[in-house]
């Protein structure tokens, strides 16, 4: 079993000791098999048992080469579990809101050091959704699994299905839901992308995105993130978050974001990283790795706080809520 899967099991044991069974579950969404090895698809469901409560979804490891995303997600879970041992506010938050995490969506790819899953499919090009236009190859291709960015033969892969089913079950019933999917490998800046990846048409919940961005700017005026619609950087076929947004029921306020950690900074400072595929996407030097693990914890915590306090900032028309608030329903930021 990989180190990442063992870390998931360790942090799950921490939460199981701290929380009653109705407020924590380590869920196995299925298994995938590659090169005669089997890998579990783990998800952690933490917090209020009521699925209508505000929910934050944390996801990582879609691309096996981007190990750093899974490590950042696990660093946050480990920090949250440690704080829950002694901090009343953290325990209170986990009574009133929910955190759903799938920190390693593509365990076979991470084990074998490939962007794709065990079938050679790029999971973030696998959804049955077509872009208005996408650049050749990088935008998704159906030519061959021997080439990168292969979309598959038309069927959703097991990992993609597990992610979709988890989001449908655990996020779509919430009165407000925010998701953050952590990747690396694009540019010199850390970017927060929101839909759409398939088109440059304005995102349907742009008012909610702008309200959340304003909240981030005011809460962390010196933050490092560049917030933009993903298609401003590039368009792609088969984006899972575009697909999930289209699947959401009615006008449900579901805001999926992608944190794209700008790995080109690491390469510029240490060009020798280009000699390995993993070096293009992950910090190699220990001090850069440690800095990356620290750097994004505040952002993840901000998203969790924003989800559980959504009534204070989210436009009420989209949330389907009145302006009336009660102390028992509004979680403190």
Structure description:
The chain has 333 residues and is of the alpha/beta class. Helix content is 35%, strand content 18%. The protein contains 11 helices and 8 strands. The chain has helices at residues 3-18, 67-84, 88-96, 107-112, 158-170, 206-219, 240-247, 264-269, 286-295, 297-308, 316-319; strands at residues 24-34, 37-47, 55-60, 98-102, 177-184, 190-194, 225-229, 254-261. Strands 1-2-4-3-5-8-6-7 form an 8-stranded mixed beta sheet, sandwiched between helices. β1 (24-34) and β2 form a beta hairpin.
Total of helices: 11
Count of DSSP strands: 8
Q: What order do the helices and strands follow?
A: HEEEHHEHHEEHEHEHHHH
Q: Report low-confidence residues grouped into runs of 5 or more.
A: 321-333
> What kind of assembly state do the chains in view correspond to?
single chain
**Amino- and carboxy-terminal Cα gap:** 38 Å
Q: Main beta sheet: strand number and arrangement?
A: 8 strands, mixed
Helix content: 25-40%
The class by helix and strand makeup works out as alpha/beta
What's the rounded overall pLDDT mean? Answer: 93
Q: What amount of the residues lies in strands?
A: 15-25%
Could you say which overall geometry the principal axes of the C-alpha atoms support?
globular
How are the strands ordered across the major sheet? 1-2-4-3-5-8-6-7
| Radius of gyration computed on alpha carbons | 19 Å
